[in-house]
Amino acid sequence: MQFTYFQEAGKQSLKIDGELYKYLFKIRREKSDKEFAFRNLLDDNIYFYKVISINRRDAILELVGGEKKVLVPHKALHIGWCIIDPKNIENSIASLNELGVSHITFIRCQYSQKKYKINYEKLTKLLQNSSSQSGRSNIIKLDESNSISQFIKQYPNSYMFNFSSNNINSCKDKIDTIIVGCEGGFSEDELKYFSKDKIVGTRISTILKSETATLGVASAILL
């Protein structure tokens, strides 16, 4: 754990109670005489606190210092991810955050099931925990779009990840925004929005799950 996320980090004093108190002092069994590092993930600073009082339910911490410490992705990658089962998104989101994806827009593509609803509150908590573990000083920005056509209007230089002889590694430096399909891929109407040079693939000829493809795309472009 590189730091602990706490929304109020930066204030002169913090009251730690509830689940965070249980996590720090019951589960991790942190010593009350140690120095605690916190981030609010809104600014670039990491804040250091010491415990000035503690009991069985809560602890009061006092600010003892702070420093600007920026650890963000070297490249801004925006993934348009056609909506799949939210459970699979939840299982992958932390890894995408660790890899350095900057922005994800969930797109309601033609083959996305309408019943799926994204739990943004849960995703945000998963991202906050991921950044705490990896040291990243921000989290992925999350958005939603109603269709690929709407997404393309907003991000006209988007690429598409699909079966193609145009290998992603040969043009990864040009890609800032890329769309990954849901289970079932893209419809004929959706494919029409992209010229051949804007459709990229890999040497893999097997059909990938959407979450596997998304992780593969992020790894190919960012690592």
Structure description:
The structure is a single chain. The protein has 223 residues and is an alpha/beta fold. The chain folds into two domains: 65 residues, Hypothetical PUA domain-like, domain 1 (Ribosomal Protein L25, Chain P, Beta Barrel); 145 residues, Alpha/beta knot. The chain contains six helices and eleven strands. The strands form two sheets. It has a six-stranded parallel sheet. Helix 2 packs parallel to helix 3 and helix 2 runs parallel beside helix 6. The longest helix is centred in the middle third of the chain and has 15 residues. The model has no long low-confidence stretch (mean pLDDT 96).
Task: Give a short summary of the structure.
The protein has 223 residues and is α/β, with parallel strands linked by helices. Helices cover 28% and strands 26% of the residues. It has two domains: 4-68, Ribosomal Protein L25, Chain P (Beta Barrel); 78-222, Alpha/beta knot, CATH 3.40.1280.10.
